[in-house]
Amino acid sequence: MGVEMAKLDASERKRIPSSEFGEPGSRKYPLNDRAHAQNAKARATQMVKRGKLSEGAAERIRAKADRILGK
Fold first, then answer.
1. What pLDDT, on a 0 to 100 scale, did the predictor assign at position 2?
2. How many angstroms separate the CA atoms of 48 and 58, rounded?
3. Is residue 2 part of a domain?
4. pTM of the model
5. Domain count of the chain?
6. End-to-end CA distance of the chain
7. Neighbours of 44 (CB within 10 A)
8. Distance (Å, whole) CA 39 – CA 8
9. Is 52 helix (H, G, I), strand (E, B) or coil?
10. Cβ distance 4 to 35 under 8 Å?
11. In this model, does residue 49 exceed pLDDT 80?
């Protein structure tokens, strides 16, 4: 089984510093905990396959997520 994804409401998301996002400038791919880091890696891969994210951007998101996951 996977990790249960914690929901972020708008006020919680606003409190997360931009530095804790995979894409800080657009505040996409929150990386505030292990569950969100795992999800960010999966979503980044999906967006590359859909042509909505470059492989380079996805690699940066994955690397940042791996630091949170201790990989």
1. 52
2. 7
3. no
4. 0.85
5. 1
6. 20
7. 24
8. 13
9. coil
10. yes
11. yes
- Burial of residue 28 (number of CB atoms within 10 Å: 0-12, 13-18, 19+): middle
Q: Which two tokens stand for residue 24?
A: 């800080």
| H or E segment to which residue 3 belongs | none
Closest CA to 30 of 71, 68, 70: 68
In a domain, 10, yes or no: no
Q: What is the pLDDT of residue 7?
A: 82
Condensed to tens digits (0 to 9), the pLDDT of residues 21-34 reads: 999 999 999 999 99
Structure tokens at 3: 């990790």
The beta-strand segments (E) located in the chain are: 21-23, 28-30
The label of the residue with tokens 């510093």 reads 17
Q: Is residue 4 part of a domain?
A: no
User: Residue 8: what pLDDT?
Assistant: 86
